Amino acid sequence: MLGRLVTELGPWSWWLLGLLLLAAELLLPGVFLVWIGIGALATGIISLVLWESAVWAWQIQCLVFAALAVAATLLGRRFLSKPDTQTDEPMLNQRGASLVGRTATLQEPIAEGRGRIRLDDTHWSVTGPDLPVGTKVRIVSWNGNDLTVEAD
Question: Per residue in 18-57, pLDDT tens?
Fold first, then answer.
């Protein structure tokens, strides 16, 4: 049945596939099906010209479609990807990174490389050299879970 439909529609079958993929992109947003749909529409344009040609067999059409879909995806991602933008709040949503350079007092000793400090209203796990309670420390880095400190 599908083969008969493609034969009856001719080059318009690629247009139909492309429009169905673009419509599916509206239902399942993710900006991926649009590139495959563009590849199908481009294959449809080529099919309008080459449909009667002996070299334009269905296998060649599928290869051209795959190549155009990949090319459209790569070009779309390259030109529509978000550029690195500068912001006036580079540490927004990176609270630990914004603490680098601050000083604090150890609330628990650093024993075997691990301890705790209190900064503002939050207790933080810290790593660093073994130090006793009450030592002033400077935060030198943040790895996502722990702050790394050194004696101040």
Answer: 999 999 988 887 778 899 999 999 999 999 898 888 888 8
Domain with CATH 2.40.50.140 in the chain: 95-151
Looking at domain 95-151, its CATH superfamily turns out to be Nucleic acid-binding proteins (2.40.50.140)
Reported in sequence order, the residue ranges of the chain that DSSP labels E, i.e. its strands, are: 103-111, 114-119, 122-127, 136-142, 147-151
DSSP three-state, residue 118: strand
4 C-beta neighbours (distance < 10 Å), count: 8
DSSP symbol at 141: E
Distance CA 105, CA 102 (A): 11
